[in-house]
Amino acid sequence: MSYFAKEEKEPKKLEWGESPFDNMTREELIRHCQRLYMATQRLHDVADVFRTNHTENPFWVSGRGARAFEMGQQALGAVTTGFDGESWRVRNQFRLIEL
Question: Is 3 within 8 Å of 70 (Cβ atoms)?
Fold first, then answer.
């Protein structure tokens, strides 16, 4: 079940200059996406530790924690789909070297 689909609304049409990303170069946008991905991955890892250690807590079973964890998993899964574990590991190493 996709939590993102549940919240979809008609997107507002942005005009040029309304987004904080309008003035970024391609390289700046790529770096920003890399930072967002790495932050999402780290937060998901921390949430996984809490979720694993608190299996009876309703927050992690069916509450906001469970929902946030699933959203993070879906966001990360969209990026990793189509890569096997080894190629993903090597790709992460090169990405960290670039930062």
Answer: yes
Report the SS3 class of residue 44.
helix
Q: CA–CA separation, 45 vs 59, rounded Å?
A: 17
- List, in sequence order, every beta strand (DSSP E) within the chain: none
What is the Cα–Cα distance from 69 to 6, expressed in whole angstroms?
A: 15
Q: What is the pLDDT of residues 62-91, one digit of tens each?
A: 899 999 999 888 888 877 776 666 666 666
Q: What's the whole-model pTM score?
A: 0.61
Q: Return the domain boundaries, the chain.
A: 25-98
Confirm if 50 and 60 have CB atoms less than 8 A apart: yes
Closest alpha carbon to 76 in 92, 55, 96, 60 = 92
From the number of C-beta atoms within 10 Å of its C-beta (0-12, 13-18, 19+), residue 96 rates as exposed
pLDDT tier, 9 (very low <50, low <70, confident <90, very high otherwise)? low
